[in-house]
Amino acid sequence: MYYFLSNLSFLDICYTSTTVPVMLVNFFREKKTISYEGCLSQVFFFVTCAGTECVLLAAMAYDRYVAICRPLQYPVLMSVTVCAYLVAGSWLCGLVNSMTHTGLTATLSLCGPNQISHFLCDVPLLLKLSCSDTSVNESVLHVASATIGLSPCLFTAVSYILIISAILKIPSAQGRSKAFSTCASHLTVVVVFFGTANFNYDRPDVGYNLDMDILVSVLFCIVTPMLNPIIYSLRNKEVKGELKKLAGKHGISSKIST
């Protein structure tokens, strides 16, 4: 679990680093601009991190499924090699998906004012600025949404259906509570991430509101990665124990100094 969490933490740092610095700089600019090369770079890293996190969360769901439903086989099914392959596969899926979208987007011809009413560069926003034929790009975008977005979401949902059914079969209430606590943090992160992602990319265009679109994007790109370590820390006994020890040490030192 901690191996996956370390990779998720690193991924969240990369995730926010692709959007937040440019957004903060533009706060202090009268003319808020980004170069074309910078825009494509942001698209590449943003799509890479988003796709990788989708697959990584599904891999973490499989880890929780094995831990609860196959506890005796856990050391074999989730060995160090298997975990490394799952993490490497997550990054590979994100990179391949991002390289495909970025390469296709780079071939488009932009026309008009080249203005994006948003705080980040994203593939759907660039497609609206293009005067080229975007049918191939849109088809690839739909395929990627199904494979990188929807498939991990469904896999995670099925994993938790099996997990919950296994937990309900535990006779004691204490056993059920202990089993559920091992996956509560991940389930919370999954609901927040996929919930904001689906609302951001899969909602209908009818009744489109720019302010709402920007708000959801902020939740998806900034708030969600920030909440991940907080959620895991609050649900983790080891982390809470270390925080209590740290608070106790500071309390003792303050009493001595006074």
Descriptive report:
With 258 residues, this protein is mainly α. It has a single domain, classed as Up-down Bundle (Rhopdopsin 7-helix transmembrane proteins), CATH 1.20.1070. Helices cover 79% and strands 0% of the residues. Helix 7 runs antiparallel to helix 8. The longest helix has 34 residues. The protein is globular and about 65 Å long. The two termini are 42 Å apart. The C terminus is likely disordered.
CA gyration radius, whole angstroms: 21 Å
Major sheet summary line:
none
Number of contiguous helices: 10
Low-confidence runs of at least 5 consecutive residues: 252-258
Residue share in helix: over 70%
Helix- and strand-based class? mainly alpha
Q: Return the CATH class.
A: Mainly Alpha
CATH architecture verdict: Up-down Bundle
Amount of beta strand: under 5%
Q: What is the overall shape?
A: globular
Distance between the termini: 42 Å
Can you tell me the number of structural domains?
1
Q: Overall pLDDT, averaged?
A: 80
CATH topology: Rhopdopsin 7-helix transmembrane proteins
CATH superfamily: Rhodopsin 7-helix transmembrane proteins
- Counted beta strands: 0
**Assembly of the depicted chains:** single chain
